[in-house]
Structures are given as C-alpha cells and as structure tokens.
Amino acid sequence: MRKALLAHVRRVVIKIGSGVISNAEGLENAQVAAISTDICHLLDRGLEVVLVSSGAVSAGKGQLGILGRPQTIPQKQAAAAIGQTRIIHEYKETFQAQKYNVAQVLLTRDDLSNRRRYLNARNTVMTLLEYGVTPIVNENDTVVVEEIRFGDNDNLSALVTNLVDADLLIILSDVDGFFDADPVGNPEAQLIPVVERVTPNIEAMGGDSRGNLGTGGMDTKLKAAKRAALSGVGTLIVNGRSANILSRVFAGEEVGTYFLPAQSKLTAKKHWIAFSKKPRGKLLIDEGGQRAVIKAGKSLLPSGICGVEGGFERGDAVRLCKCDGEEFARGVVSYSLAETLQIMGKQCIEIEKVLGYKYRDEVVNRDNLVLTVTDEEEVD
Question: Residue 296 is part of which domain span?
C-alpha cells in the first residue's frame, strides 16, 4: 500500500529535526553525513529534494559555552550565526562527495507573507531544482524576532511544501511516528500507521511535548501535516535516526505514520492567505454575514461587519470572526482599518457616499477568502 501511495512522488520536502542530527553536546557530523548520503540516493533515483534543516542553534551553542537550550533571542541568534556555517559545511561535504551540490536558503515569515517576496523565493528555489541543486532551507535565526518567526521548522516545512508544489512532505523525527499516546511515558502506546485526517481527537493525542534541542513537539508536526494536507500533499513522519530510512521509505517499507492528503485542497493562493500571510487585524461578523460567507459561499460585504480590532491596511490579511471572537475564516481586505470603520454596517451603495470613492463592493472578496477548517465544515 505504501509503495502505491508514493508512486507519484517526484518532488519531496524533507524536514530534519534538531534531535535527529544533534545531541546535548552539539551537531553530530556522522548523522548529518548518513542522512545526506541517504538523500543523495533519492537524487540518484531522479527525485527532486528540498531540505528543511534544523540544528543551527545546536551546532553553534557549544562554541559560545552555552549548555542546554539558549534562553534569550540574542543567544539563539549568536548560536545560529555560528551554527549555520557549520551545518551547511557538513551537508556540502557529503553531497559533493556524491557529485551533488547544495545551496542555502534562509527565510523569515516576512519573506513568505509578502506576495512578491513569496514568489521571488519560489522562483529561486525552483531555479535551483532546475539546475539539479538541492536547496537547504532554514529560518533566518540570526535576524529573526518573535513577530516574524515561523515558530518552528515543522511549520516552515509545510509552507515550503506549498511554495514548491511538492508531492510529499517527510518529517524526520527522533520517534518512530505518531502514537496513540506518548511512547516515552506509556509502554502500551501503539503506532498509528495511517491517519486519514487530523481531527481534534488526533491533535489531543499529540499533546504539547517538545524536546530539549528543538522548538517543536508532535503537536507542531500534526499542524504541519494538516497544512500540507490542505495543499493536497501527504505527510510521512518517520524516525530519522533509523539507518537508511529514506531509501526504505521509497522502497515501500511500511515505516512511520502516513497522513493522507485532503480530498478537497486549497489553491496555492488560498493556502498562502491561510498560512503564510500573517493576519494584521480582526473583523467581527454578524450572523447574516456569517451565513453569507460560510453557507452561501459569498464575499464579505460591509453590511455584515459589526466590529473591528487591530490595525491593517488595504491588502493585508485579517481574521474573520464571530461576535464572540471565534475565527471562522481569513481573507485579504479591500479597505484599510480607517475606511472599514466608516463603512461597516452600511450597504454597498453607501460606500462611495461615505468615503468619496469606492474600490469595490466587497470588504473581502470570495477569491481572497479562506474558511477555517473544522470538523463540521468542508474546505472552501
């Protein structure tokens, strides 16, 4: 079954966690070499690979005399500045020994939030693949601050999967896959080989645990799988410390946990709105507006808006929320905060009279709107 599921894969994003290639002392060069060699075997088979690699902070903290996880952002940035050069060097050495080249691509959330920069990043990565070069992507930890963080490389890997139109996301973790309970604390925990959909029950099984070296736990991997699924892409979580794990995956071996892609997927643009473009504010929508957007599949008109929070300009993303604050959609606004405050609750024919001009009837056009996925609702 697994071999059939992967038969269509030609381009794959592989995310490597810190716990896979580093320990408490720092980067494990032998592990980097082993995984790099395994990736090169995939390249030999004609696959295209984009690598999302953690480990820069772990690789650099030792030279600063930092024990354990760095506690401040400046410490993480300094460790990453040192570690980035070390980790890319290790990848480069192994890949070149197999006659392949790598390139480093450092991103912040701002790079993917801005549509033009998003497309620029896409063009760069796609050009590298055309030339047979393996991009190695990481968050630009040396300059990033909390406001523009991806949060973790699991999230980044899901966004990169959409960015490059990959056919599969593989997350290399330090566990064998997704279990129905924490296998560390529960010896009776059972591996779940296939997950059809990431439901709230599945998310509850993931918990909020995280390792000492990385920033993400199983919960972040589930979120990544859910986001990749909405791109129409499956996700495989396997143990990156198992020998030749990637070659075994593509040989059809039933290892790890495979998360099926969603039957109804978002377009690339709507996926970008939902997950890459950071919301700048919130629109509170009355019941009539909610029905129009959720049930009737219509655009959001000013008459349906009963409140506004935050600050945004025309072209920014905002959250569409019920009056109690519960989000049900995201979208790109056609009017700024100041303009929205003036026209909310009014009819479309009143916009030009109030503002003296009109961009369009809709505050959020349906083409720029994405429903929040729940158990009860289908993907827009």
Answer: 278-371
